[in-house]
Amino acid sequence: MPTVAQSFEQFMQGLELHSGENSEAKRQERYVFEAMRRRLRPRESILSGSYGRNTAIRPLHDIDLFLIFTAAERGTGESVGPKAFLERVKQALEEEFRGKQAKLQNRSVNIEFSGTGIGFDVVPALEDPRRPGTYWIPDVRKGDWILSNPRKHIEACDEANARASQRLKPLIKAIKSWNKLQGKPVPSFLLEVMAYKGIDSFRPEGRLSVYAQGMAHLLQFMSEHIMDQWPEPAGLGPPVNSGVGQTNLVQGQQRLSGATRKANRALELERAGDMPGANEIWRELLGPDFPVR
Length: 293
What we know:
Blueprint: H1 4-15, H2 19-40, E1 44-48, H3 49-53, E2 62-69, H4 82-96, E3 103-104, E4 109-112, E5 119-127, E6 135-139, E7 144-148, H5 150-163, H6 168-181, H7 188-198, H8 210-225, H9 246-271, H10 275-286
Helix pairs in contact: 2-4, 5-7, 6-7, 6-8, 7-8, 8-9, 9-10
């Protein structure tokens, strides 16, 4: 019977993307970029989102692809609105990839490729001429352009992971796996941003699984702070939870509180030496891929 630490190690390894998945994602990213360059002439692209931050979990689905344009591509900035620019991207994707229907979203256009099942959320980004590396992206709900910097998001994630001795990214992936089983009541990026802060108060005991303790700590921290305002990591755009409905936040808080109680019970069993009992609770929380034998 494995210890809790051994089960967590095996579970975390199962969440990692395979080398083949990474290779295919990067190949398709170049494929999409080259197709869009023929139509709309973006200057460069950035793999952003959870894939860019290395917090994506298997199976890999949608990848955020920043397409960077110069501001001149939309005139002075007032001539083309956010929805019109997204519609231009949607049209270009459907013209390049005949037979595929792209989907207009709030800040991106989604297109999925059969076979691999990998899709891309294509985000058109306009570099601010006064602030290199800072970008304006469309927000249809706001009816305006908002600022973003995906490279700053990657830096914030990497810095928090370094403070946690490289354990934060695996923990984020495990919490995303839990959230997926719950029907994703909490947006993944909000979970990540809360984790960047929550990990700073984590002080593990020496004789218990560090990952198990980290999960329990982060679940409790998130349940206590999900109602707080969570600034966007680059300090540019609206708060991360600004577009999340109150119903979702309340549901997320309830689910996180329930998971915290189970996680703390699992730690009690591990502390008492009952590894099978502890592992069974973690399996309830994290699903059938969590090994108990």
